[in-house]
Structure formats: structure tokens, C-alpha cells
Design brief:
Elements lengths: L3 H11 L9 E5 L3 H18 L1 H4 L14 E8 L5 E9 L22 E10 L4 H18 L4 E6 L4 H6 L3 E2 L6 E4 L5 E9 L3 H7 L5 H5 L27 H4 L4 E3 L1
């Protein structure tokens, strides 16, 4: 699914950029143990805000193993502890999860789309930094894979964070739509055109422009590194308590 040419262009463009090292890494989940770390963060993050729905997230979901899905995991460089996670699903092999609940408008039909879901981060002081880095990783993935629009859903007040990133409403009047893949909780549906992102951030003098576009972060590396995560889910088993209890988490 990954495309070579965009990645080569991005690599060339990164030459000469200032380099910033992070106290954590962001990589693809490619082993069952890494997936379990991501699931531990995911469950704890949702448990703080939507505990009823969080009970369905104790174990990996079938989507985590799907061919059109990538799960990202942020881990501390100091001790390897999990700090954040996000999941990206494309429509290259089938409809997005959001399309189980609502038909997307005509201007998104026939486009290469990526839906970002299950974003959760550590609640500590580093949590905001991890969240912004995960968002950058998602934008990078979309660009490297020639995605036309990133699609997100946000319940109030999280939807305002996507507004600040210049996502636009997919439906009129900022409609809040119950979504099956998030426990039928009403969410606002928003989209971001990848090709015009930098120009729009530049025109808006966005405070994250330099971070997203003009700084190289070697610790964000979402290229495939090993054999893909087995597409057959492992037998359901509880997430180790050591993973879930390493810290408190906040859902993004």
C-alpha cells in the first residue's frame, strides 16, 4: 500500500531542515506485544471519558489486524513505556468505519481517504507533545500514501482541536452524528485536504507549521520495519495490568 515516490520526495525535502529529537519514538505496531501496549493506552484513555464504551476496548479489535489499517505507538526512549497511540484506516480495500453509520458527501466519494481513530495519550505533562507528534505522524502517513483527505470524528469538546488544525466540517451546521464504531456517541465529522494543508497552514500562520512541515523528527519513523502484524487476531487475553497501570491517560 505504501508508495515509493512521495516518500523519496519527502526524504529529499527533509535535507537541510533543522532536526529535533524527541524523548519518545513513534513507530508502526508490527508485533502482538506492541499492539497490546497500544491497546492498554487506548482502553485507559477512553475509560477516563467514556467508561461504558471503554469496556469494549480491553482487547485488540478486528480492525487492528486489517490489511488497510496501521496502528501507531509512541514509546519512551528512556524505558520503552507506552505513551500514546493512534490508528489509521484507509479506504483502499473497503469503506471506512465511519461509513457504517453515515454516507459521506459526493465531494469525498471516489477519493483516497484515511480515517484516524483511537487516538489516546499519556495524561502526564508529556501527553500534549505526544499527541501533536502522533498527529504529525498521521499527516506524514497520508502524504506518503497519496491520501486525498484525512477524516476524523470528534465529540465535544475534542472537535475544537481539529478545528484548530484547520479540519473542515463534512456536514452542514457542525452536525453531531451517532457513530457505531464509537459506541453510538454523537461525533462531529471533519476532513482535511492533504495536498493543500501546508499552504493553508502558511496562510493562517499556524503555530504548528514549523513543527509539522519545517522540522525533521528522526524519532517519528512510520516506515514498515518488519513482517506485517499477523492478520489473524491472537486469542483474546487480558491486557497485562503492568501495561494499563503504568500511568494515567487522557483521550485525544
Amino acid at each position: 500500500m505504501d508508495m515509493c515516490n512521495p516518500a523519496i520526495l519527502l526524504s529529499a525535502a527533509a535535507e537541510g531542515m533543522p532536526v529535533e529529537r524527541l524523548p519518545f519514538t513513534i513507530r508502526r505496531v508490527e508485533t502482538e506485544s506492541s499492539l497490546r501496549k497500544a491497546v492498554g493506552i487506548r482502553h485507559a484513555a477512553y475509560a477516563r471519558h467514556v467508561p461504558d464504551f471503554a469496556r469494549t476496548l480491553v482487547d485488540p479489535e478486528a480492525c487492528d489486524y486489517a490489511e488497510d489499517t496501521v496502528v501507531l505507538l509512541a514509546e519512551s526512549r528512556l524505558d520503552g513505556s507506552p505513551l500514546g497511540t493512534a490508528r489509521i484506516q484507509t479506504n483502499l480495500h473497503g469503506p471506512l468505519h465511519i461509513e457504517e453509520s453515515v454516507a459521506l458527501p459526493a465531494w469525498l466519494q471516489g477519493r483516497r481517504l484515511a480515517e484516524v481513530t483511537r487516538l489516546g495519550v499519556d495524561e502526564g505533562r508529556i501527553g500534549r507533545v505526544v499527541k501533536i507528534a502522533l498527529i504529525k505522524a498521521c499527516f506524514d502517513y497520508c502524504e506518503q500514501n497519496a491520501i486525498d483527505y484525512a477524516v476524523v470524528t470528534g465529540r465535544a469538546p475534542i472537535d475544537r482541536q481539529y478545528e484548530q488544525l484547520l479540519f473542515s466540517d463534512v456536514f452542514e451546521d457542525k452536525a453531531m452524528i451517532p457513530l457505531r464504531h464509537v459506541g453510538n456517541i454523537p461525533h462531529r465529522v471533519m476532513a482535511f485536504e492533504i495536498a493543500t494543508g501546508e499552504a493553508r497552514w502558511t496562510a493562517a500562520r499556524h503555530p504548528l507549521l514549523a513543527y509539522f512541515r519545517h522540522t525533521r523528527h528522526p524519532d517519528i519513523d512510520i516506515a514498515p520495519r518488519a513482517a506485517a502484524l499477523s492478520r489473524t487476531p491472537a486469542a483474546a487475553r487480558p491486557v497485562p495490568a503492568s501495561v494499563v497501570s503504568q500511568s494515567h491517560f487522557a483521550m485525544a
